């Protein structure tokens, strides 16, 4: 272990320089304009895995973007850890809100990161995080201290719903066989308070369209006498929540697993300052489902949110017009018990009933995924807890996360393995937003901690 940590200390600057190279490639999976960049990123990841000492490194074709695979199998009688991550990133827009180019990584100091943070799209989600595993592996491998077998599966479509990964996993069960999956694509509570995500929410994502007349019309000539799809859509969306912040779709809560009083009491112990929370995002008050705390609303309760809404005139100045169409993109975050397909169907059946007969409503389902929970009794959780507790010098807590990594539930179904979500990001990294960044403290703490996970997992 000492040799591994020594190797890390001696190579810190190089690790950072290599990450910077990776962050320069705009691997935006959602936008076809970046197709070649996404493919180039896969090649770069493969190159890094080889340089770290992985064998049988492959850029595996799928029906979408490739999965990068690599392995080091030292002894069949030892456990195998499968590391999962994603090399694709979210679109960088709105570009004008970035203080430096999203694909021109720079190190800047912030209040939370006086030692510096690396600013770039993908720095925290997830290039900076999966790269910690490549470097921790390199350190263990080159210092002769890799304690078990390791496999890497780094995909390029996580941010667009992992559409090809399910098939890849089903077709490669033997190759991907493992004892535990290790993922760094989530957060810790703070730099002082380590935590392990023991839950992820599921997702159902739909797009809706409301059509009125066949053409856009003068809002003076026709206004008041004809359906206005934007007015109608707003009313329909408003009806999806009641005054207590509960979702009104019939049957929506039927399968929700409620937490025990003990679990809720444990959650209430997580350090949380409402004032800091509000200040950090610039809101004067919070809102949400009645009867639940902010942490609960953002992790163990299902939600429904409009992610985008458009139609009519959105250019400069004023144009008087009644649009023929209105659109919205809506996400529902799901919790254990809820089935994404069932929830999508409930939405598809219910939403059109909220419309007047003057319009036509279409609902187009997008991707979805099941929620995930890891019991704290799991050997993988225990190893992660020991590892983080050791390197942070403070006991790591279990915490349910609000985000989704839909493929994690599928890993359990297809490979029969649990996933440990040992992420090192912070809420304040603003993933998916302008000025995404990843603290150098977090990056190096991750590289330092991962070898301890391997050690304790193999010993445990
Ligand atoms: N890394 C995130 C998920 C995440 C973030 C989990 C923070 C917990 C805390 C992942 O890359 C992501 O953004 N997932 C998407 C889902 C996907 C289907 C687009 C999400 O949660 O919106
Ligand atoms: Mn991610
Ligand atoms: Mn993401």
Topology (SSEs and partners):
Layout: H1 2-23, H2 35-52, E1 55-60, E2 67-72, E3 80-86, E4 106-108, E5 117-119, H3 127-142, E6 149-155, H4 165-171, H5 173-176, E7 180-183, E8 195-200, E9 202-211, H6 229-238, H7 261-268, H8 274-281, H9 294-297, E10 303-310, E11 325-334, H10 340-350, E12 360-369, E13 372-373, H11 379-392, E14 397-400, H12 407-415, E15 419-421, E16 437-439, H13 440-459
Parallel strand pairs: 3-6, 3-7, 7-15, 8-14
Antiparallel strand pairs: 1-2, 2-6, 4-5, 5-16, 8-13, 9-11, 9-12, 10-11
Helix pairs in contact: 1-3, 1-13, 2-3, 3-13, 4-12, 11-13
Bound molecules: ligand BES and manganese (II) ion (MN) (2 copies).
What would you say about this model in short?
One of its GO terms (biological process) is proteolysis. This is Acetylornithine deacetylase/Succinyl-diaminopimelate desuccinylase. This protein is of the alpha/beta class and 460 residues long.
